[in-house]
Amino acid sequence: MQKILQINDNDNLIVALKDLKKGESVIWNNHSYVLATDVPAKHKFTTQEINIGDILYLYGLPVAKATVKIEKGAMITTQNVKHYAAEVNLDNRSYNWTPPDVSKWQNRTFNGIIREDGRVGTANYWLIIPLVFCQNRNVLKLQEALAAPLGYKQTSYDQVTKNLLGCHSSDPQESLTNRAFANVDGIRALTVNSGCGGTATDATSLCKILAAYADHPNVAGITVFALGCEKSQVSIFDEQLKLRNPNFNKPYLFFRQQEWQNEEEMMTLAIKQTFEKLTVANQVTRQPVPLSKLKLGVKCGGSDGFSGISANPTMGIVSDIVVSLGGASGLAEFPELCGAEGDMVARCIKKEDKIHFLDLMNRYEEEAKLCNASIADNPSPGNIKDGLITDAIKSIGAAKKGGHSPISAVCDYGDPMAEEGLSLVCTPGNDVEAVTGQVAAGANIVIFSTGLGTPTGNPIVPVLKIATNSITANKLSSMIDFDCGPVIEGTSLQSLADDLLELVIKTASHDYIVKSDRLEQYDFIFWKREVSL
User: What whole-number distance in Å separates Cα of residue 289 and Cα of residue 197?
Assistant: First the structure.
């Protein structure tokens, strides 16, 4: 196996693929480098002597500026470089790209859920929604009352305690094959961290996200709980639902707790009425649909120094294939586009999208400054430890998830992504807030790369976890669905992308159950942008 990798011929940084020792000699393209320091795998070292103020390049783009003099062959660290990004050009030059050959995928299908309006889901869930955090308990109680008896409990540690008490039972997975509603994939619930005690803007924004989830093609119907005095009133939710879809006609049950003298009576009726509506949801069956009905969310979390080399570009190829077939893809995490703005702007088809993207980025930075921070502060200690020293290094590698296709739309948090093409979806880098936003934008499947490992999932959309390296894939096999580690060993990106797309198709057809769903990792966090009052 090759020990090092120079990603672009113009780079003055080289990536260590293996742990390298000080004094060791390594060769790339007939150039020999003697290491001035130890360089752990995933970190970068310089190809030449670097002076204070010099720009360092990776992926052919500027990613850092030297703060001290750096020897040739020395590792870059947070002590010798700082974040740096190229200036952005707003000119109207056309963006040229060569779409991939998609002939082998042209006639492929997946088994999807076709809704009355023609939109396609990859799942068929009943969704339980709270309009305020003090209804989280009722939401979870309703889910608990329905999910296990109806055969939707994926994992339970209750049996561990029962075994300790000497009570042994049959395999809990047996119930999964004996569901009362065979065409309903699950009873899913959201819990929220907002809805009251905040600004009116936050209340409206929360209702906007909840309405997007209610209207999502993966959702068959909804049960909604409110307290009664919250800021996120049901009238606001209904207004946002109408804005999202004026023709919304899914089964919709509503319970306002302050109208009831007895919680048990309310919950009993909620269980009975939801059970009755599940018979309607159960009438939907899967049908073959073209791959153009896929709407990907491309995301990374727990990133490492291999993310931009293995998993992210593999996902980018899948994104380009789906877009070329007439499908859609959404690239989120705006703090992880800090340093990649030039490429994003160049790829926007419309000038108004270029401006909108930069406006959203500038607004984000101004909000960060109010907290004495910057979006360039995004890399976590785990990222830095694994070679992502500056936000630009992280961002340019993260942007690889979006492939090379032109950008069709730029949308704010909770706004719908384009029906076709690549969209930029404004979200934080925070894994759960970002995936929550991608699903609200309309993604019906999320592919999520991770170098360090994360169990993150979503209540209504399958989240496929893609490892950047085989060590993480093997160590955290209960979380990881697909291993891109072979890229580091020399396997081609295209070969792995073909395999990944096959897994996406199986997942969209419900023939493969993602690990995050098996772990019941149904994460939902609304991005609360305003102050608490």
Answer: 44
Dist CA 218 CA 459 (whole Å):
10
CA–CA separation, 294 vs 501, rounded Å? 11
| C-beta neighbour count of 86 within 10 angstroms | 16
- Dump pLDDT digits (tens) for 443-466: 999 999 999 999 999 999 999 999
Distance between the two ends of the chain, CA-based, in angstroms?
57
The C-alpha atoms of residue 255 and residue 239 are separated, in whole angstroms, by 17
Q: Are 200 and 235 in contact (CB under 8 A)?
A: no
Our measurement of the distance from residue 190's CA atom to the centroid of its chain's CA atoms, rounded to an integer in Å, reads: 17
pLDDT top residue among 289 and 376:
289
Q: H or E segment at 446?
A: strand 445-450
Q: Is 118 exposed, middle or buried (0-12, 13-18, 19+ CB in 10 A)?
A: exposed
- Res 81 pLDDT > 50: yes
Hey, is 348 helix, strand or coil?
strand
Q: Which of 409, 433, 303 is nearest to 356 (CA)?
A: 409
Which phi and psi angles does 351 have, rounded to 5°?
A: -60, -35
Residue 186: both structure tokens together:
């699950």
pTM for the whole structure: 0.93
Strand-pair partners of 287:
112
Summarize the chain as % helix, strand, coil (round to 5). Answer: 35, 20, 45
Distance CA 124, CA 283 (A): 10
